[in-house]
Amino acid sequence: MQTMTKERRRDHWAGALVALIGAAAAWIGHFYGVGSLTHMGSGFFPVALGLAMIGIGVLIAATGGDATPDPIHGPDRKPDPRGWLCIIAAVLLFLGLAQYAGLLPATFACVFTAAIGDRQARLLPSLALAVCISLFGALVFSTALQVPIPLLGPMP
Amino acid sequence: MSGTGLADLAHGFAVALEWHNILWCFVGVLIGNMVGVLPGMGVLSAISILLPLTFAMATVPAMLMLAGIYYGAQYGGAICSILLNLPCHPPHAVTCLDGYPLTRQGRGGMALGITMLAAMVGAAFGIVQMIFLAPFIARIAFQFGAPEICTLMLLGLLAGATLAKGSPVKGVAMTLLGLLLGIVGTDINTGIERFMFGQVELSDGIELVALSLGLFGIAEFLRSVNNTPPVNAAHAKLGMRDMWPKRAEIREAAFPILRGTLVGSLCSLIPGTGPTIASFVAYATEKKLSRTPERFGHGAIAGVAAPEASTHSAVQGDFIPTMSLGIPGDAVMALLLGALIIHGITPGPRLIVEHPDVFWGLIASFWIGNLMLVVLNVPLIGLWVRLLTVPYRFLYPSALFFICIGVFAARNQLFDVAMTLGLGQFGYLLVRLRFEPAPILLGFILGPRLEENFRRAVLISRGSLEIFVTRPISAVFLSLCVLLLLAQLYARVRRVSVVTAAG
């Protein structure tokens, strides 16, 4: 028996994902009222799209397996757990601190956390970068553009 | 048309030459140029971050600036490819093949000089094409009713999904996903809340900036972090004097530039085949026509001149379907169309007549902007090269902050920032599964208009789908759709691919 290539397995997942989203859209959409062609309900378009996605998903799973590397980005690269965690944490910190502590701490935490996601990052340059961007951000977004996040303190 | 055309163009220059418009055009091309040079920063991210900041501006300067970022980036992207062999900017990926060998031979400056020349010719042709074609196309499109708009959008979406790079079937899947994302929010016809899952913040739909910065900003960082090759700028030292090509070199580049320009202008007229495809087609054509194809890949001047000319001509031509029909050809155009909508302008054939300031001002600003770019690039080349060596570990944390604050500024909702993070994870998953996320943006922008026109068309015909076949223009668009699908099927069976033929 022929063993499945990595690319074929990848496209099985890809097709399954598309079909799953389609199925969910069609299922949720039918509650909005499909109606008929003469009296189209809000659910008509979502259900039609969902059904089409199920079909396309099956097609992807059935025909995929293209192994040629991407001509622009080159072969697939392994995801990097450290960078991934730090980028997510950076945005979450920005969200939390912007809500409860102000723009300056939010920016500092966001930039610093993202910066230490890089394996070559060193402490002092990362801190310096975070300080610079925080000051720049405060100047541009708070002073000049008046984005409604206070520099320090919780959001109103 | 020439008489009124000239008067319109003169009006455009009057608009574009107002001092604040010139200023914003300059800001746009400067940022674009910088973004094009910086590895790992994309045009889409740059435009998305700046989009919320244009809400407070008038429409004309906002559009001039955002458009300037797009074509300005093309000038920067070539520097990256030729001097550093970094295909950080898709339309210029193919320029690496011959540009970098030239740099290693010490002729990188000359290659950049040729690139400037190609850019000027390509852009000039693209703009002239837009002056003549866009009003013409718009006049035809005046007669389109709901059924025609519907099938035309279908054609645009299908072309955008299947002709861009990557698997056509996956492209269609992404377009459908985009259409689905465009549905989220309150249905304007019935008031029913769709796919909101109880989140009030979504009642106006998903924020365009959040979607595009999730898919093209955060997803890109997740992919590039700790994965960027070290920048090798050893060969990248050059001065202004090195950039003048010799007469023999210009002669060698002349015909490739002209051919590349034509390829680019043709590609720009077909939705979905933007500058990236144009550059690959131009390279493949040159290699096929050349009497010395073995020189390609080892520093052939034609291998730099043709794709660069085609990119620039396609970039300008890209605006034609966007401005005359309201149908964007790629993700950048979808974003610019979104910017127009946010500024309260309904895109479509009426745009040229109803908003001549925007249309003709934009065209005039293309001339001014391209001129600025050529003037900027010659003396600033040293600065750009130094910028190239800024390590990625300083770039992406700063950019991440700009994404957070940019998304927030769009609607003053922290919810949208969280949404961007989620969409970023999802976008990364899609990229890992080898989907190209660009058609999502196309579907997202066109989705609401497609649904509205579909409903209207079927209402006119009292529930019969025949209306799409019996109206002649609509039937033509539908048969083009079928033709497109058949051609794709043929290409799949024969295993023809433009992109692989170039490499």
Low-confidence stretches of chain A: none
Based on helices, strands and strand pairing, what is the structural class of chain A? mainly alpha
The quaternary structure here is heterodimer
Quote the distance from N terminus to C terminus of chain A. 65 Å
- C-alpha-based Rg of chain A, rounded: 24 Å
- Percent of residues in β-strands of chain B: under 5%
The H-and-E topology of chain A, N to C, reads as: HHHHH
- Note poorly predicted spans of chain B: none
Query: What is the SS-derived class of chain B?
Result: mainly alpha
Helix segment tally of chain A: 5
The largest sheet of chain A, given as strand count, sense and whether it forms a barrel, is:
none
Number of helices of chain B: 22
Number of strands of chain B: 2
Structure description:
The complex is a heterodimer of chains A (about 160) and B (about 500). With about 160 residues, chain A is an all-alpha fold. Chain A is built from 5 helices and no strands. The termini of chain A are far apart. Chain B has about 500 residues and is mainly alpha-helical. Chain B has 22 helices and 2 strands. In chain B, strands 1-2 form a two-stranded antiparallel ribbon. In chain B, helix 3 runs parallel beside helix 14 (about 330-340), helix 6 runs antiparallel to helix 16 (about 355-390) and helix 9 (about 210-225) packs antiparallel against helix 17. The chains are: A mainly alpha (about 160), B mainly alpha (about 500).
Keywords, separated by commas or semicolons:
heterodimer, A: 156 residues, mainly alpha, flat, B: 503 residues, 2 strands, globular
Write the layout of secondary structure elements.
The complex is a heterodimer of chains A (156) and B (503).
Chain A: H1 6-30, H2 44-63, H3 81-100, H4 103-115, H5 123-144
Helix pairs in contact in A: 1-2, 3-4, 4-5
Chain B: H1 2-16, H2 19-37, H3 43-50, H4 59-84, H5 96-104, H6 108-141, H7 146-163, H8 168-183, E1 185-186, E2 193-194, H9 208-224, H10 247-269, H11 275-289, H12 302-317, H13 319-325, H14 331-342, H15 351-354, H16 356-388, H17 392-411, H18 414-432, H19 438-460, H20 467-470, H21 472-494, H22 498-502
Antiparallel strand pairs in B: 1-2
